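RECORD TYPE: inverse folding
INPUT: structure tokens
STRUCTURE:
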């Protein structure tokens, strides 16, 4: 239900056979930052063909129509996560970036300077707007960062209602200059816990050091921190 709240039926194309939906594509209008500017972007998703209709060229035809619609909407670029590079490369997409999954030893983070722990506190639902403002200050300087719409911010980004989801914020001088969103769960591989960082945003080095050092404080029970799709050269 929460996921569906981000969807608009006008972003979908479908293929039908005998009054049954057999294939879909979706192109969500967004933006992506390059050189400090938000470039109109179509985020392609929900590419699916019913198993008994695969191999008939339905998906390529739907995606060709999707590209035409994006062109009509003025979406200059398109982004997707390819399930298979060969298929999408044949339709005109090419590898232009990465969704990196990195594992950082918690002991390395614990060895960092402490930063400014007095500015660190657990985040609250009332911090939502300040976290969004922080992201929108930082994101234009990161090539490829997504210019998120209202629906995506409202539903997807912080998701504080999920079990074992944590938000910590760097709050200095009455302004939120950084935040980290992560999950903590029982480890599937070993004794202890796993931490998965979904997003760490810092407006300056002070905030970055403080937030990474906070993650390092879990070293007693967490060997590594898994970091999703974020630049680590802060």
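DESIGNED SEQUENCE:
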């Amino acid at each position: 239900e929460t996921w569906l709240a981000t969807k608009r039926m006008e972003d979908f194309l479908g293929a039908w056979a005998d009054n049954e939906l057999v294939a879909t594509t979706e192109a969500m209008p967004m933006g992506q930052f390059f050189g400090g500017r938000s470039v109109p972007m179509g985020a392609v998703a929900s590419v699916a063909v019913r198993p008994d209709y695969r191999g008939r060229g339905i998906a390529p035809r739907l995606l060709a129509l999707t590209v035409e619609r994006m062109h009509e909407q003025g979406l200059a670029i398109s982004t997707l996560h390819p399930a298979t590079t060969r298929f999408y490369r044949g339709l005109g997409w090419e590898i232009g970036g990465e969704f990196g999954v990195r594992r950082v030893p918690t002991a390395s983070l614990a060895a960092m300077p402490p930063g400014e722990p007095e500015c660190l506190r657990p985040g609250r639902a009332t911090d939502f707007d300040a976290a969004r403002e922080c992201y929108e200050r930082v994101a234009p300087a990161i090539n490829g960062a997504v210019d998120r719409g209202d629906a995506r911010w409202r539903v997807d980004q912080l998701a504080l209602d999920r079990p074992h989801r944590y938000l910590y914020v760097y709050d200095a001088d009455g302004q939120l200059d950084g935040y980290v969103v992560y999950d903590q769960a029982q480890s599937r591989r070993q004794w202890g816990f796993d931490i998965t960082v979904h997003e760490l945003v810092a407006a300056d080095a002070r905030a970055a050091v403080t937030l990474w050092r906070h993650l390092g404080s879990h070293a007693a029970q967490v060997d590594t921190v898994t970091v999703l799709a974020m630049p680590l050269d802060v």
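NOTES: The helical segments are 58-72, 85-90, 106-110, 128-138, 150-157, 205-216.
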